[in-house]
Amino acid sequence: CLEPSANMPWWKGPTLLGALNNLEVPKRPVDKPLRLPIQDVFKIGGIGTVPVGRVETGILRPGQVITIAPANLSTEVKSVEMHHTALEQATPGDNVGFNVKNIAVKDLKRGFVVGDSRVDPPQETEKFVAQVMIMNHPGEIHSNYTPVLDCHTSHIACKFEELLTKIDRRTGRATEEFPKMVKTGDSALVQIVPTKPMVVEPFTEYPPLGRFAVRDMRSTVAVGVVKSTTKKAPGKAGAAAAGKKKQ
Q1: Strand, coil or helix: 54
Q2: For residue 96, with 0-12 CB atoms within 10 Å meaning exposed, 13-18 middle and 19 or more buried, which class applies?
């Protein structure tokens, strides 16, 4: 509807077109450091290794030196393409493929995260604290519960190491410290430890890398946001390696 209708004199608001024109375009987080979760990796003849993913924050440019976590690999971006068209830069929301130097396809996996080597590069997360809301679980959830977390493009089993605080969903205030269990309808702060190398970020800093779904029994049993993270110290054995040593 382009003009206000005489048949609706009671309507004092804008027309549909006017309402659409008044919508503000969401601001893309180009000013944040680069984060690009890898969705897939291809080997293309004559070009080489080409990871594919969506830029979530920051800008990806040819010639940029990047760090890929949790493998802690550094390399240079040779070229960036979207829909078979070379780009001078890729901004948040762009699904791109980019050619990297001297890295084999087998060294990269879905769920790895790309960042700028010079500006807050991504690191493997040793453990993190998250606010988790239990939506649909048939029983009780206790410490050491180990479901699969879907966070950005990663799909990794993670252990609920400790239930820290039960939270009132309406007020956001703590109602119980170190609860023995939580069930459907509860919200809680939980310390979570990935069973394999994984990259997550606090929701307040990198929202796309700070929210996750908890999967168990072929359904989504909970959702959560990352409140804080503890990064793995360089040179320290990864979670998977540490698990092997204990056996």
Answers
A1: strand
A2: buried
What does residue 243 show for φ and ψ, rounded to 5 degrees?
A: -65, -35
Res 236: pLDDT: 53
Phi and psi angles of residue 46, each rounded to the nearest 5 degrees, phi first: 85, -10
DSSP for 122-175 reads: ---EEEEEEEEEE-S-SS-B-TTB--EEEETTEEEEEEEEEEEEEE-TTT--EE
pLDDT value of position 234: 65
Nearest to 77 by CA among 97, 55, 100, 54: 100
pLDDT in tens, 189-211: 999 999 999 999 999 999 999 99
Residues 127, 161 contacting (CB under 8 angstroms): yes
Of the candidates 175, 190, 186, the one whose C-alpha atom is nearest the C-alpha of residue 140 is 186
CA distance 129 to 204: 13
Walking along the chain (247 residues) 10 residues at a time, the average pLDDT comes out as: 78 86 86 93 88 94 92 91 90 92 90 92 93 90 92 92 87 84 89 93 93 91 92 59 38
- C-alpha distances in angstroms, 147 versus 99, 112, 205? 34, 20, 25
Cis peptide before 29 (omega within 30 of 0): no
The pTM of this model reads 0.80
Nearest to 232 by CA among 202, 199, 207: 199
